[in-house]
Amino acid sequence: MKRVNFDPDLEKKKTEIMEQFHSNNGPEQLEGSKEAGPDAHAGEPVNEEGLRERVIEALKTVYDPEIPVNIYDLGLIYKVDIQNRFVDIDMTLTAPGCPVAHTFPGMVERSVALVSGVEGAAVELVWDPPWTPELISEAARLELGLI
């Protein structure tokens, strides 16, 4: 197994993420997030690809509480479907016995619901297929020193 060098900036970021997580407020609001309420975009055409990109960026602001990698690059997000400004997400956790299993999906929902153009979000926690380290993105593997 490769060694991971101690990075004080990464540790500071991890501490900030854990503080946000424990306060159960979710990650900070993204630039361009909703300010005018959920009906602000009613009747406007939806650029679903642009909306999908913004949703993925929001997912990348949510970090696993035990691993310093965001949930998207960690491979915990299995599905992101968008229909009529509503985002439906299937996600998993690294282990079924994860202590945050009851609160983490709500945190992810709130993060996605803050994205400009999103009218609602629902996260379903799924266990099939089970998460494995092979689902971690190449960039995250490099960051973790696994490559």
Any descriptors?
147 residues, disordered N terminus, three-stranded mixed sheet, alpha+beta, GMP Synthetase, Chain A, domain 3
Describe the structure.
With 147 residues, the chain is of the alpha+beta class. The protein has one domain: Fe-S cluster assembly (FSCA) (GMP Synthetase, Chain A, domain 3). The protein is 31% helix and 13% strand. It contains four helices and three strands; from the N terminus they run H-H-E-E-H-E-H. It has helices at residues 8-23, 48-59, 104-113, 138-144, and strands at 77-83, 86-91, 120-125. It has a three-stranded mixed beta sheet with strand order 1-2-3, with helices on one face. A hairpin with a 2-residue loop joins strand 1 and strand 2. The chain is globular, with a radius of gyration of 16 Å. The relative contact order is 0.19. The model is unreliable at 1-6 and 25-40 (pLDDT under 50).
- Count the domains: 1
Strand content: 5-15%
**Count of β-strands:** 3
**Uncertain residue segments:** 1-6, 25-40
Structural class: alpha+beta
CA gyration radius, whole angstroms:
16 Å
Provide the helix percentage.
25-40%
User: N-to-C terminal Cα separation, in Å?
Assistant: 10 Å
Using the coordinates above, name the CATH class: Alpha Beta
Stated plainly, the CATH topology is called GMP Synthetase, Chain A, domain 3
CATH architecture tag:
2-Layer Sandwich
Element-by-element helix/strand order: HHEEHEH
